[in-house]
Amino acid sequence: MNCKIATAQPNHRGLKHDLNLFDSFEFQGPHGQHLCLVTDVLGYSLQYIRTIRDRHVRRLPSALTKRVAKQTLLALEYLHDVCGIVQADLKPDNILFHVSDVDAVVAHELVDDPSRSYGGGTHLVPPVVPIVSQPILDPVPPTQLEAVLADVGHSHWKDHHFQELI
Predict the structure, then answer these.
(1) Is 166 within a domain?
(2) CA distances from 117 to 25, 108, 120 (A)
(3) Is residue 164 one of the residues assigned to a domain?
(4) What is the value of pTM for the model shown?
(5) In the chain, how many domains are there?
(6) C-alpha triplet 69, 49, 15: angle, nearest 5°
(7) 162 in any annotated domain
(8) What is the DSSP string of 8-55?
(9) At residue 54, what are phi and psi to the nearest 5 degrees?
(10) What is the pLDDT of residues 4-19, one digit of tens each?
(11) Which residues lie closer than 8 Å to 154 by C-beta, 6 or more apart?
(12) How far is Cα 9 from Cα 95, in angstroms, rounded to an integer?
């Protein structure tokens, strides 16, 4: 599915709001074989934004809600109408945001919290060393946030459902 999303219609207005797959590779780790996906660097989730100010307040400003809703609908339009994919796990945890200046934000975060590797690399040439995922917090004003629908793991094709209950 990720390959279809990446290649179906590169100029579609909704593509930039779906997770961009650059590459993939397999990694033999201590817990078995893993398929690793190389994607956009993304920041925090909508769920995180909902709880950032006050752990009890779950509301978002209406301007941000409208912006995220529009961008999510564009992502869903691309998935459904262009790729033939039904997104079956739409929730605030699966809506992430583009990072404004990846290099600057990552460099700043790595000073405070250096990356940790899983230990060991791959047999690829050049070798790839898998790094433990860590959150990246981007101080972007809410009016500039660009939403990305990030998880198609529970999705299915329009004409072939993997399960009947969603």
Answers:
(1) no
(2) 16, 19, 8
(3) no
(4) 0.73
(5) 1
(6) 40
(7) no
(8) S-TT-TTGGGBPPEEEEEEEEETTEEEEEEEE--EEEEHHHHHHSS-T
(9) -145, 125
(10) 777 787 888 888 898 8
(11) 88, 89, 166
(12) 21
